[in-house]
């Protein structure tokens, strides 16, 4: 796959300033395949040479900024992530989509490495 792009959205209930309840409001969240994007915009693309980790930085602009783990579990949010890329041999576009509910989010955990390198002995 080449030219892979990632998107993240949160499906949640929101209340407008006028008091209208919108049950299935979709809000785009910034995702990045880079560890730290403080110096620029988040990069929403990646190259599939090795496994790619896509993350969302929780900062003041994030809809998750004021939530505690307990608040998140009590919410009715759904996190939806898509990846769209070009299949190199055919030039066709492919898309993958997945979603997570609050009880599927693990706080304070890290991914175990799934890549090993062997040193050449000769």
Question: Helices and strands in order, then pairings?
Answer:
Elements: E1 2-15, E2 21-29, E3 45-46, H1 69-74, E4 78-86, E5 93-100
Antiparallel strand pairs: 1-2, 1-3, 1-4, 4-5
Mind explaining what this structure looks like?
The protein has 122 residues and is mainly beta. It contains one helix and five strands, in the order E-E-E-H-E-E. Strands 1, 2, 3, 4 and 5 form a five-stranded antiparallel beta sheet that branches. A hairpin with a 6-residue loop joins strand 4 and strand 5. The radius of gyration is 18 Å and the shape is globular. The chain starts with a strand and ends in a 22-residue tail after the last strand. The mean pLDDT is 87.
List keywords for this structure.
mainly beta, five-stranded antiparallel beta sheet, 1 helix, 5 strands, 34% strand, globular
Query: Strand count, sense and closure of the main sheet?
Result: 5 strands, antiparallel
* Helix-and-strand structural type: mainly beta
Strand content: 25-35%
Q: Helix amount, in percent?
A: under 10%
DSSP helix count? Answer: 1
Number of strands: 5
Q: How many whole angstroms does the radius of gyration measure?
A: 18 Å
**How confident is the prediction overall: mean pLDDT?**
87
Low-confidence stretches: none
């Amino acid at each position: 796959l080449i030219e892979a792009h990632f998107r993240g959205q949160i499906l949640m209930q929101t209340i407008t300033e006028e008091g209208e309840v919108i049950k299935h409001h979709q809000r785009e969240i910034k995702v990045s395949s880079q560890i730290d994007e403080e110096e620029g915009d988040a990069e929403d693309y990646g190259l599939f040479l090795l496994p790619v980790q896509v993350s969302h930085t929780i900062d003041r602009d994030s809809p998750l900024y004021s939530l505690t783990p307990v608040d998140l579990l009590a919410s009715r949010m759904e996190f939806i992530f898509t990846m769209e890329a070009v299949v190199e041999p055919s030039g066709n576009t492919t898309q993958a989509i997945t979603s997570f509910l609050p009880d599927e989010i693990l706080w304070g955990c890290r991914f175990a490495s799934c890549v090993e390198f062997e040193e050449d002995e000769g």
